[in-house]
Amino acid sequence: MTQRPPSRGEHLRTALTLAASGVPAMPLRAGKVPFGNCRRCADNACGGRPNMKTPGPCACPGPCHAWAAATTDPDVIRSGPWRRAWLSASAVAYHPGGAGLTIVDLDNADAIAWARENLPATQTVPTTRGEHWRYRGTMQSANAVQPGVDIKSAMSYARWLGPGSGTMTELPDAVRALTVKEPTAVRPAPLAVPALAGGGECRHRTPAYLERGISMAEQRITEARSAVHATVYRTFLAVLSTHGRCGCLTDAHVARLFTAAQAKGETARHCADAWTNARTRLGL
Predict the structure, then answer these.
(1) How many beta carbons lie within 10 A of that of residue 172, not counting itself?
(2) What is the pLDDT of residue 182?
(3) Which range scores top for mean pLDDT: 67-71, 203-207, 278-282?
(4) What share of the chain in percent tops pLDDT 90?
(5) 124-135: average pLDDT
(6) Regarding predicted confidence, which is higher, 122 or 218?
(7) In whole angstroms, what is the distance from residue 113 CA to residue 214 CA?
(8) Which residues contact 128 (CB under 8 A, 6 or more apart)?
(9) Which H/E stretch holds residue 231?
(10) What residues contact residue 72 under an 8 Å CB cut-off, 6+ apart?
(11) DSSP character for 166?
């Protein structure tokens, strides 16, 4: 027997249920795409919440600005502008990053087979062509990290296809690593290693000293709640001011900092620029 598609009222009820559990919900129109911006917000003329940048101060009452429109406010979801959107909605979507989640979107059987071999098991949700694997934790979103594999988390949306099956597990490093560019694409130029006066040993080479400094820098970036660009730059500047003149930093240390920044939504280019600017300011 053919399954009856959900009604518009069911979409609204689903969105309210998601919102009540802390999952920001939004309607999708035909084609599984977000509703376009209203005339007032067309081309981001309102100055807020562009599709792929940090949400701004726009207070449009309708479901504008794609993923940035997703909300847990039931009054917004039931409001007049949103209710009109639900009347023509074809599906319910949610903002995984806003719910503290990451979705590995597996688009076909080959992608599913790859995930089963390379990623830890977690909660899975069947899709039209493949599966969504849900992990607890957020990271930057990215498309085509592997053939048929997309990452949906911060600044992205995913269709709500049900609660899924299995136990959701913590976001593993294996998934985070999928969005990290090849080392040659993200590493800055090697740091010069000046000779030490008197041939003494550099104190920074003490493993505990250096490891503590890098771990604190990673934590500072990871815990940033706003002004991520500025936080990344200041952190890079602090690391370089302490370790940049003695040659202690290795490619592995720099890659850790870049990975932490990219997990907060920074691009590889932004990381490289911030690193270069910090070195220039310090005369390195």
Answers:
(1) 14
(2) 53
(3) 67-71
(4) 41
(5) 96
(6) 122
(7) 36
(8) none
(9) helix 228-243
(10) 18, 19, 20, 22, 23, 24, 25, 98
(11) S
Place of tokens 């719910």: 99
* In contact, 177 and 139? CB cutoff 8 Å: no
Radius of gyration in angstroms for the set of CA atoms belonging to the chain, rounded to a whole number: 22
Whether the Cβ atoms of residue 191 and residue 249 lie closer than 8 Å to each other? yes
Which pair of tokens denotes residue 51? Answer: 């599709």
Distance CA 267, CA 73 (A): 31
Distances (CA, A) of 18 to 25, 27, 116, 162, 257: 6, 12, 28, 10, 34
Mean pLDDT within 220-248: 81
Both tokens of 30, joined, read 């035909």
pLDDT at 85 over 80: yes
Which pair of structure tokens corresponds to residue 225?
Answer: 């709640």
Residue 64 in contact with residue 29, Cβ under 8 Å? no
pLDDT digits (tens, 9 = 90+) for 37-47: 888 887 767 76
Instruction: Give the Cα separation of 145 and 166 in Å (integer).
Output: 24
The model's confidence at residue 7, banded by pLDDT at 50, 70 and 90, is low
Exposure of 132 in the CB half-sphere (CA atoms within 13 A)? 22
Residue 178 parent element (H or E): none
